[in-house]
Amino acid sequence: MTLQEIADFIGIDCQEKKEITGLNTLLDSNENQLTFLENKKYLSDLKNTKAAAVLVTEENSKEVPSSSIALICDEPYLMLAKISKLFAPNVIEMDGEKPLIGGGTKVMPNVYIGKNSVIGSDCTIMAGAFIGDNVTIGNNTIIYPNVTVYRDCSIGNDCIIHAGTVIGSDGFGFANTKDGKYIKIYQNGNVTIGNDIEIGANSTIDRAVFNSTIIEDGVRIDNLVHIGHNCKISRGSILVAQVGLSGSTTLHPYVVMGGQSATAGHLEIAPFTTIAARSGVTKTIHEPKKQWAGFPLFEHKQWLKLQGKISNLLK
Amino acid sequence: MTLQEIADFIGIDCQEKKEITGLNTLLDSNENQLTFLENKKYLSDLKNTKAAAVLVTEENSKEVPSSSIALICDEPYLMLAKISKLFAPNVIEMDGEKPLIGGGTKVMPNVYIGKNSVIGSDCTIMAGAFIGDNVTIGNNTIIYPNVTVYRDCSIGNDCIIHAGTVIGSDGFGFANTKDGKYIKIYQNGNVTIGNDIEIGANSTIDRAVFNSTIIEDGVRIDNLVHIGHNCKISRGSILVAQVGLSGSTTLHPYVVMGGQSATAGHLEIAPFTTIAARSGVTKTIHEPKKQWAGFPLFEHKQWLKLQGKISNLLK
Amino acid sequence: MTLQEIADFIGIDCQEKKEITGLNTLLDSNENQLTFLENKKYLSDLKNTKAAAVLVTEENSKEVPSSSIALICDEPYLMLAKISKLFAPNVIEMDGEKPLIGGGTKVMPNVYIGKNSVIGSDCTIMAGAFIGDNVTIGNNTIIYPNVTVYRDCSIGNDCIIHAGTVIGSDGFGFANTKDGKYIKIYQNGNVTIGNDIEIGANSTIDRAVFNSTIIEDGVRIDNLVHIGHNCKISRGSILVAQVGLSGSTTLHPYVVMGGQSATAGHLEIAPFTTIAARSGVTKTIHEPKKQWAGFPLFEHKQWLKLQGKISNLLK
Question: UDP-3-O-[3-hydroxymyristoyl] glucosamine N-acyltransferase non-repeat region domain: which residues (chains A, B, C) (predicted)?
Fold first, then answer.
């Protein structure tokens, strides 16, 4: 789709015929992608963007680098939401190749496998599983019953996905209009799941808005865990039951999140951090190998001490 | 079913042949419905009921208005539970019309659509979805894989229901017997979902015990959210992942509930209220447009101040 | 499998040809089972084990009773994990008898029922349900759509299992290697669900690592509840929505757990205890019939008093 066509779609005048292949963040965009700036906090990213064009307010448009085209509008984030629909793939592909199923793989009855999907050897795909279009699954992976894998996601070798888990559902993203409507930001990314990963029952891992939600090798995820869009769960991390990660949370390697703990979004947790059960993390944790607890969060020893002080209030 | 038949079923003497069409609350009952009073707190409602008959203790029976018949019993709530089974529809309808499917609607394999159900045009019903009997779905709605919609529920136009979500499961209701058994209160209501609503993956919305659990236009619900029976989520409200709403919670328009927050039941939250992540609401919030946090709940600024005071205990 | 074959598998020298039928804990093992000791806390259990053999470090091997054989190794728990795979049943049985379905039982389309499974009379098994191999279901039980029951589990009479619930998924268990890999402990036990039990939508009940996760008669479980492996939920207990029980939690009869409350693992809660919504239980509760609240947990009245004291900090 050309930049001109996109601009026309949102009622902006732009004569550029440059072909745009997708949407992305300021820093991750390549020279064929469109990006946006809504929040001034990211002005420094704007200066470094390689994007073909930027949705931007007039006020901020002076900072658009000369290599990019400024698409000036009042509500860049809302315009991005509207444009995201143009790049959304079909919910179901009607055309495409039949799925390829590797040797030794068992596919039970009542399984749907989409167009252009490739499943490796020695897998087990159990009854009621849904494998969307353009999904790849490695070797020796077990997909338990009634699992849903949305289109374009990938799962590696030696994984176990327990029943009812959903991989690749849309991230929770929308822009507000001034009259109180929510315009969906189509989640055109995917989920990539590495090797040797076990995910419990009825967990949900949302697909990325751009690029990928990433689960690295060796991760262990329990039941009823929620992982928001664009999270990165690095290798060896452990998420106990009912954990909730907001969007764009990065867990560095070997982070342990206790049961029912959670994170606010857009933060990082240092390697080998342990978050106690039922804790809430609202800021990036920089120092590795520490234990934390509570909400608000304290170092675990401090939290225990604090609970002692609090209970003294009863005396 | 006549009042006499109902009375016979629970061993009460009543000769009235009046036809009873269902059960309802004191205030919502019409003149063909049966209601009950267990808790004296609702005596003023009793005086205003239009119900055909009321299950009531002898003590409270004097307050039954002359337009209603008093069915006197020791345990009205338990009797209601027993009677609720008489009005429960079939789990599966064997008779009835084949479903009607509108033009342009795609129904994938392994989908079940029940008797008398009507699906509009340009919908997508994905593999493994279950659409029960007597369900209506509007136009241009997407039902993702392995979604379950129980019988009698309705979903409007332009909705997106993500994989694994359950709409219309029974509310959590039962009466105790003196010897420690739980008698199910059949949940004979339904769920009504308006237009332009997106619901995430593996969420659950229980059907009403009487009448409807209501999700109004424009609502956004994230993953793994629980909505109890008889809740009303008014237009434009947003429920982030892992929120839990107890039964009969009313969210007025444009309420935002942060991740893992929750409400006790039978309360209301004023319009444009924001509840921070992980907060617990136990009382009605009357004043609109305020921010709240914590458990117990405080105004957000007060909660932040309080956390400062608490952390001072460590000094 | 002989003890010699097992020892060979993990590179230990042992010439014993004794047939080993499975793995179990120190105290629950019979004379044909293999057990392990990793944590010195359980040395007294070691002295009382009836197991055929014990995986044990050299240091602790002197305490192995003369009736048992010591399999000396550096990392007994890790060795147990490796051996657990040898005893894991097939994910899907290819051989075995067709399921037996009792009179009056309705099985909807798109249902899978495994080998050697037995379903009683007057049940309803709804579309998209998965009933694994060797499952038994009693009479008059309803399995709603898209429920998954893993192999070897049992469900009694007069139960209702709501849509999307998963029964018998693997417990969250693995041993660490020194180089940061997680070795799965195969969960070779099952889940047994008694009579007159209702379980809400999208809940998850994990199978036991050894023996059974047990749900006793009359229990009521709401939506999105997580029950870890080897829990025992005694008769009449009530678990409200989004409760999370860590592994090996025992609820004695008639315990009530409020919404979003949780337990750490390996603890017991006395009969007729009430745990308020959003509380966290980290220690065994010995005294019956008390109310508790908060995290850390206090008696409910004390917790209310404490919240008053805390809010006074704002003055």
Answer: 19-86
The answer on A21 and A133 residing in a single domain is: no
Task: With cut-offs at 50, 70 and 90, classify the pLDDT of residue A139.
Answer: very high
Look-up of token digits 């007159």: C196
Question: Is residue C26 assigned to a domain?
Answer: yes
Cα angle: C109, vertex C111, C114; to 5 degrees: 145
Catalytic residue (one of A229, A252, A286, A300)? A229
Determine the Cα–Cα distance for residues B83 and C102; give it in Å rounded to an integer.
28
Residues belonging to chain C with any Cβ–Cβ distance to chain B shorter than 8 Å = 106, 108-110, 124, 126-128, 142, 144-146, 160, 162-164, 196, 198, 200-202, 218, 220, 222-224, 236, 238, 240-242, 254, 259-260, 277-278, 307, 310-311, 313-314
Tell whether A310 is covered by a domain: no
pLDDT, tens only, B37-73: 999 999 999 999 999 999 999 999 999 999 999 999 9
Provide the CATH number for the domain around residue A216.
Answer: 2.160.10.10
Nearest-CA distance from C250 to chain B in Å? 20
**Rounded distance between C-alpha atoms, residue C171 and residue B15, angstroms:** 57
Residue C180 lies in a domain: no
Q: Which residues of A touch B162 (CB under 8 A)?
A: 166, 169-170
Torsion sign across C-alpha atoms C256, C259, C261, C262: positive
The dihedral region occupied by A52, where left means phi > 0, alpha psi between -120 and 50, and beta the remainder, is: alpha
- Whether C162 is a known active-site residue: answer no
pLDDT bracket for residue B102 (50, 70, 90): very high
In terms of DSSP bridges, do strands C174-176 and C182-184 run parallel, antiparallel, or are they unpaired?
Answer: antiparallel
Question: Any long-range contacts for A217-221 (C-beta under 8 Å, 24+ apart)?
Answer: A217/A156, A218/A194, A218/C180, A218/C181, A218/C182, A219/A194, A220/C172, A220/C174, A220/C182, A221/A197
Q: Do A57 and A115 sit in the same domain of this protein?
A: no
CB-CB contact of C271 with C238 (8 Å): no
> Using a CB-CB distance cutoff of 8 angstroms, which residues of chain A are in contact with residue C202?
164, 202, 224
Tell me if the pTM is above 0.90: yes
CB contact under 8 A, B181 and C218: yes
Is residue C253 within 8 A of residue C235, CB to CB? The reply is yes
Enumerate residue ranges in chain C where pLDDT < 50.
none
Question: CATH number of the domain that C16 lies in?
Answer: 3.40.1390.10
A114/A17 Cα distance (integer angstroms): 34
Pair A191, A271 in one domain: yes
Those residues of chain B whose CB sits closer than 8 Å to some CB in chain A are 106, 108-110, 124, 126-128, 142, 144-146, 160, 162-164, 196, 198, 200-202, 218, 220, 222-224, 236, 238, 240-242, 254, 259-260, 277-278, 307, 310-311, 313-314
Domain extent at residue A222: 100-303
Domain for residue C169, yes or no? no
Minimal C-alpha gap between C202 and chain B (Å): 7
Tell the burial category of B301 from Cβ atoms under 10 Å away from its Cβ (0-12, 13-18, 19+): exposed
- What chain C residue is nearest to B176 in terms of C-alpha separation? C236
Chains with at least 3 CB pairs less than 8 angstroms from chain C = A, B
Give the active site residues of B: 229
Q: Mean pLDDT over residues A178-191, rounded?
A: 98
Question: Which among A87, A119, A140 is the end of a domain?
Answer: A87
The structure tokens listed for B76 are 């009205």
Is the CB of C259 less than 8 angstroms away from the CB of B242?
Answer: no
- For chain A, what percent of residues have pLDDT higher than 70? 100
Residues B64-73: contacts with CB under 8 Å, at least 24 apart: B67/B31, B69/B3, B69/B14, B69/B16, B69/B18, B71/B3, B71/B6, B71/B7, B71/B12, B71/B14, B71/B34, B72/B12, B73/B10, B73/B12
Task: Identify the pLDDT of residue B259.
Answer: 98
Count the domains in chain A.
2
